[in-house]
Write a structure and sequence with these properties.
This protein is of the alpha/beta class and 363 residues long. The chain has 12 helices and 14 strands. The radius of gyration is 20 Å and the shape is globular. It holds the Pfam family Semialdhyde_dh.
Length: 363
């Protein structure tokens, strides 16, 4: 009998759900035993449900292809078959908040790619290398929900992965002000070039809700768990302002960032801090953890999506073009893979961390 944890994927037919399917195909800890989606896909095999809209380069794993798709609203039936679920459902935020809480109250841990619960005060929003200790808030969330096993944890927005890790590595230099402009891939909207003709020969200077997420979400990640309030209290610095643009790239979010520091680090100190930075996933050698979380590239024209987006299988962050600025102290370019580190891969690494910490286990 397999010792792997039994995993269900909610929203399995969408682009992020498909990425979960491919990344978990040979996972050493997790076994996809159930897929769920909207009622229109329910009753079909997974292969039938994604026919004509499979967006991954890899083939559908044979084991998953013939699984019957369940209606994501069948919470009791699904909860009986799995140890925990990944959530990538496509619903309104109110509906997502409700259904994820229903799963948690059915004693199923939920690791979510969705934004609906990112600002629920007792829901941890985790980048495992940055704030693994935020899982401590789960005990307070369970008190609120009245659960013993069930809880919700989320990963942050894909756009911040291209610059927040660098700023984290530089926290000891006390960054005070940040300007971050992100140039975001179309897969961040769940699209490929085939179904996004509007992006060809174009740049779209608006992504709904993205700038607010880019400015606020790092503050929660850099915050702390307050045992009196039983919630996560966000950090107050640095102040971040951002602009987010959609560009004609399939995978990879690029950031152009400017930073002021209270301390005045040298370029050598900044690069050394990037290259030395690692976290709990590296110490624990978690299955999806990159060996090197952040790399610094010295070439003038790097990082580039074409060459660097798949660094550490898409789970690493690439930084380059660190140089003094005339208005700010320093400026740099960052790059992250938006559906690996930024979406499904980041959530899988989060689940690995939560398993290692004892929050996710077999029933």
């Amino acid at each position: 009998m397999s010792e792997k944890l039994k995993v269900g994927i909610l929203g399995a037919t969408g682009m992020v759900g498909q990425r979960y399917i491919t990344l978990l195909a040979d996972h050493p800890w997790f076994d996809v035993v159930l897929v769920a989606a909207s009622p229109r896909s329910a009753g079909k095999t997974y292969g039938q449900a994604v026919a004509g809209r499979w967006k991954m380069e890899e083939d559908i794993p044979a084991k998953v292809k013939d699984l019957k798709v369940l209606d994501v609203n069948q919470v009791t039936e699904i909860a009986a078959q799995v140890d925990f679920v990944f959530s990538a459902v496509s619903m309104s935020k109110a509906e997502i908040r409700q259904i994820e809480e229903e799963y948690a109250k059915a004693e199923i841990p939920v690791v979510s790619n969705n934004s609906a619960h990112r600002w629920t005060p007792d829901v941890p929003m985790i980048v495992p290398e940055i704030n693994p200790e935020h899982s401590e808030v789960i005990k307070y969330q369970r008190e609120r929900l009245g659960t013993k096993r069930g809880f919700i944890a989320v990963k942050p927005n894909c756009s911040i992965q291209s610059y927040a890790p660098a700023l984290t590595a530089w926290r000891k230099f006390e960054p005070t002000q940040v300007v971050a402009t992100t140039y975001q891939a179309i897969s961040g909207a769940g699209k490929t070039f085939k179904d996004a003709p509007e992006i060809l020969n174009n740049v779209i200077p608006f992504i709904s809700g993205e700038e607010e997420k880019s400015e606020k979400e790092p503050m929660k990640i850099w915050g702390y768990v307050d045992p009196q309030k039983k919630e996560i209290v966000p950090a107050t610095a640095p102040v971040i302002t951002s602009q987010c643009l959609r560009v004609a790239v399939l995978y990879g979010h690029t950031a152009a960032a400017f930073v002021n520091f209270k301390q005045k680090p040298s370029k050598e100190e900044l690069i050394a801090a990037l290259e030395a930075y690692s976290g709990v996933p590296q110490k624990l050698n978690l299955p999806s953890a990159p060996k090197q979380f952040i790399q610094y590239l010295t070439e003038d024209d790097r990082p580039q999506v074409r060459y660097d987006v798949n660094f550490e299988h898409g789970m690493g962050i690439s930084i380059g073009r660190l140089r003094p600025d005339k208005i700010f102290d320093w400026k740099f370019i960052g790059l992250s893979h938006n559906t690996a580190r930024g979406a499904a891969g980041g959530a899988i690494l989060c689940a690995e961390l939560l398993k290692a910490q004892g929050y996710i286990s077999a029933k």
